[in-house]
Every structure is written in C-alpha cells, then in structure tokens.
Amino acid sequence: WSLYYKQNMSNIGVKHESYTEEDWYSDLFKSAESVGVVRVAKIALKSFDIFCQSQGISKQEKINDYIKLLKPSKDDDGEYIEPDSRSVCLSLNKYVTFLGETHDEIVTSTTNNSIRTFKAKSPKTIRLYFSLVKSYLKKCHGVRVSIEDIKDYVVFPKKRKIARQPLTLEQLKQIMANASPKRRALYYVLVSSGMRIGEGLTLTRSNFHFDERPVRVEIEAENTKTKEDRETYISSEAVEQLKLVLGDVFNHKQECDCFECSKMIFGYGENPDRNVTYEDQYFSDLRVRIGKKLNQKPSNDKFVGEGFFKKYKNSIRYVVNIHAMRAYFITKASMRHGETYSHALSGHGSYLKEYNRRQEDEKAKKYLELEGDLFIESVKTETDRVQEVENKLIKEQMAKLQIEMDKLMKYPQTA
C-alpha cells in the first residue's frame, strides 16, 4: 500500500481526463447499439438514487463517501491506511437487498391518476442493475472494487428458473381474430418465422422473396441482435395476411427500389426500441380486451390470474405476451427438426454457422415439412371440433322441427 499511495500521490497536479454520465451513456450505446440498453442504465441509476435517498443521503453524497473510503490516507502516526473496500461492498450489498424488497412507501412515478411504488426486482434484474451501477461508479467516479471483494461481501439472490408456458393454438386464434389487419399480419410473420419483435418491425417489402416457395425472408445484420445476416421463412398463411397489408406493393418485383418497397411495413419511426415499446403497449391493450371479452379473472396479490390475464408466479410478466410468439415457433421447429434448426432460424448466434453451411434447397424443404405445424386458421382446435359437433346437432334438431312444422301446416288439427 505504501507503493500504491506514492504512485497516487505522484499524480497530484496532473490534469485528469473527465468522464461524465453522458459519456458513459454514449459508450453503452456504442457498445450495444441499442437505445434500450441506455434506457435500462438510466433506470438502474434511478434505483440507486432511490436507495440512497432511503438512507437519508443523496446519490452524490453516497458516491463521495465511497471515494473517501477508497482513497489512500495516513493515520495520526503517519502510517498508511488501507483503502476500505469492505465498507463500500457492504453498502452495495445493502443496495442489492433493497432491490429485492417491495417498498410501497416509496412512490416512483404517477401516471394517469395512478401511483407506482417501488416493487421488488427479479434476481436477474438485480444482477443487471448492480453491474450497471458498478460500471458507472468505476468509469465516472473512479470507485473501484475488486471481483474478489464483491464475491466476499455482496450476496445476490439466487436465480429462479421459472418454466415458461407456451401459447396455445386457441390463444393464437383469439389474438388473430381481435387484432387489427396490420398487427395480424405482423403476428403471423412472427409465429411462422421465429423472428424477434424488433427484427419484425424493421421489415420492408424488399426483405421478402414472394416468388419463392416457401417465401424466404432476408434479415440484414444491422437489424439482428447478433449483428449477423440470416434467412428464415414465413408460412403461406402469413403471406395471405401480408397481401392484405401491402396491397399493390405486394406484386412489385424483388429488385424494385421504389420508396414503398423500402418503407418499413410494421415500424413507425426510426427508433427501433421505441417501436418495440409501442408494440408491447398495443399487445398489452389487446390482451386486456380479449381477457375482458372472455370474462377471465385478472391477477391480484394472491391470484395469478387466468387466461390472458395470467402472470407467472412472483412476477409481473404475463404468460401471454408478444415475445411468446417466437417461443411458439422455436418449440414447433424443435419438435419437427431439432434444436439446431429451430435456434438457427430464430437467430441464436451459436447455431448460425452450422446451419448456414446447409444447401438452400435443403433449408426450404425442411421448412415446408414444418409449415403445417405453424398454421393457425387452417388448424382446428378441440374447441372448434366441439363447436362443429354442437352446430351439427342443432342443425339436425332444426331440420326435424321443420319437418314436424310442415306436417302440422299440411294436416291441421281440428277440434
């Protein structure tokens, strides 16, 4: 520590480069190429600010305390005092504990006459927030704590592996029946291709090869999570829905470079993360409409809800959500052709290279074998079959009654 102290003291008078919070946000964006990452980082810092306020201190005052604790110094006898990283880590451990608790007394925001309070975060979210706050403290304020100290003093809650529940065919039928034509086309594309919602929203007419069977979709590296080009396919049902949305543009040639062919079909603006947020909100409203229409019970503190209102236990996530359409495809494709095929088509990077070595006609052939499993409208559910039987019985009973009525009309009874 003597050497460490001397080295640091030797820097006195040297002009240090400044690194602001905005610089940190900028670097996060350049690294992830995502506005969403920056948004999460701001939420993480806000949560740290709320934690500091709960302890009766501002965020900047808490950071100043950390800096003092880690700054080399001397005691009254001139002996070097070792930086107190233990105290910093114990403070950060309190932050982790704070994130895992619900604080109804803390109001985080008010919107549309509703009040939002601080809710407990999931283990995965806690680790993410901690990582971002740790990065912010180190880069913007020089607060460095070692990985060993974090392991010794910071206790993270264990991750809960909650089994995800798949969408049912009945639920997909309800979604398609109640969505607008444009959203219905988007949902058919997602279900039959395995795309992420963000990828689907960037699609233009130029991405689709409607002259091929099955219809091939090219997704540019710029618009994928892995930043790798990839191809997938869509079902004939999805093609029919796209026809309704594209109109005359559907018949344009593949090499057409007109404005309409280069315009996003489903996205609304240039900000991809904002487009995803809009679609999440639309689907949330759609889920509520369908749930109310089916008279399903919403969730509360003691009940997870039913049907379209059902949530995962101890979570704010709904079972029926727009991202589950991708999982529906992965499940169906895995059952038909295995995980390598399903994950490659849906864009999991570790599978792409092995998959891309296959011949184009082999990929298309495999999709045609899978396509029937992805149909929605042309597949009858058990509810549809029961309804058909009931309708058949009603028709038969109506026919019998009609015969009886005809007899009575022909041979009226007399007194």
Account of the protein in words:
By secondary structure, the protein is mainly alpha-helical. Helices cover 56% and strands 7% of the residues. The protein is built from 18 helices and seven strands. The strands form three sheets. Strands 5-6-7 form a three-stranded antiparallel sheet. A two-stranded antiparallel ribbon has the order 1-2. The protein has a two-stranded antiparallel ribbon with strand order 3-4. Helix 9 runs parallel beside helix 14 and helix 14 crosses helix 17. The longest helix has 29 residues. The protein is elongated, with a radius of gyration of 29 Å. The N and C termini lie far apart (120 Å).
Helix content: 55-70%
Give the class from helix and strand content and strand pairing: mainly alpha
Largest sheet: 3 strands, antiparallel
- Please tally the β strands and state the result: 7
Order of helices and strands: HHHHEEHEEHHHHHEEEHHHHHHHH
Regions with little confidence, pLDDT below 50 for 5+ residues: none
Quaternary state reads: single chain
Shape: elongated
What fraction of residues sit in β-strands?
5-15%
Strand order of the largest sheet: 5-6-7
In DSSP terms, counting alpha (H) and pi (I) runs of 4 or more, how many helices? 18
Q: How big is the Rg?
A: 29 Å
Name the average pLDDT. Answer: 86
End-to-end span in angstroms?
120 Å
Write the layout of secondary structure elements.
Layout: H1 2-9, H2 21-32, H3 35-54, H4 59-70, E1 73-74, E2 80-81, H5 85-99, E3 103-111, E4 114-118, H6 123-141, H7 147-153, H8 169-178, H9 181-193, H10 197-200, E5 208-209, E6 215-219, E7 230-234, H11 236-246, H12 259-262, H13 272-293, H14 324-337, H15 339-346, H16 349-356, H17 360-374, H18 382-410
Antiparallel strand pairs: 1-2, 3-4, 5-6, 6-7
